[in-house]
């Protein structure tokens, strides 16, 4: 199921996942309840993908403990926010995950200050001239991690080093690509639709 710009502004739990989705007032895990409350305050919504996973609250709490810092929500150093979102957007596009593709393209546009940039990277990063050499190399690495990790050779890693990436940053890029691939597979299996807010042109 794919939402469109004309979709309703909210989706009922029954349409968020192929499995049961608990209502927010059913949740008992303090960390999970706090996560959704913060999302509502900061973004004015609760994301469909996280709502779908809230069926197993403990698993969602543990997942968030790894995923959110990996995507830079804790203000960590390392890869830039834009580089992280380039990786997440490219991988989600490769896997054709409707929710993750729309979500990360939208976030990349916000980070870049150009909504169309995120959308164009989502379609085909090879055609986006504004990508830096470092972003392009990270995107290529992400595709390889997702599609055929055995195809990665020392020369590919040396290319990243020549562009100024340390081994720690390369590992971070690999980890983001691999983990986003896992989240894509969950979203696809549950048929989680994008939030309508992720799919329309801002201001329209």
TrEMBL record:
An annotated Gene Ontology molecular function: peroxiredoxin activity
The entry's keywords: Oxidoreductase, Peroxidase
Pfam families registered for this protein in UniProt: CMD
Keyword Hydrolase: no
Segments forming domain Carboxymuconolactone decarboxylase-like: 76-107
Domain of life: Bacteria
NCBIfam families recorded: peroxid_rel (TIGR01926)
Full protein name: Peroxidase
Lineage, top ranks: Bacteria, Bacillati, Actinomycetota, Actinomycetes, Mycobacteriales
